[in-house]
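Task 17 of the worksheet. Students: predict the tertiary structure of the chain below and write it out as structure tokens. Keep your answer in the requested format; marks are given for formatting as well as content.
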Amino acid sequence: RTKTKTRTMATARARPKVKTGRFASKRERALAQSVGAILLDLRSALRRAERCRLKLSHLGYSQQRWQEIVREVDPELRFMVRPKTLDAIVAYLRSEGKPVDRESLVRVVAAQRGGEARRIRQSVTANLHNQKLALYAENKIGLPQWKHKS
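Model answer:
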């Protein structure tokens, strides 16, 4: 009994205390709700802008031309004009025409862009999670469209 009590007390001390019964003021809750709504709007706007950028790219517009289009629409969207790591990855995968080993993909894209391999790995992982890239057998990376063709 003593050992059990000691263990439970030690475990209880290790856990962080959770505040219960204390709520934020109405003003704080309203502020949190409005900030949440704003963040959701921003997220959907960024997704729409990214889809438009990709559509322009797929339609054959050069990077320079779609940058001009974005500047014409709204010069404040400068951050959308920057070339993305994903663009370099997709361009390389398209040039190969088949899934490529993950590490060789990172090496080649890092050499082409002069970027850090760590950032390119992070981009590959993030784009695998959001399904803009697809994982194939033997740790190879490819485009999701290629899975549907097979």
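Marker's comment: The CA atoms of residues 12 and 19 lie 15 Å apart. The radius of gyration is 24 Å.
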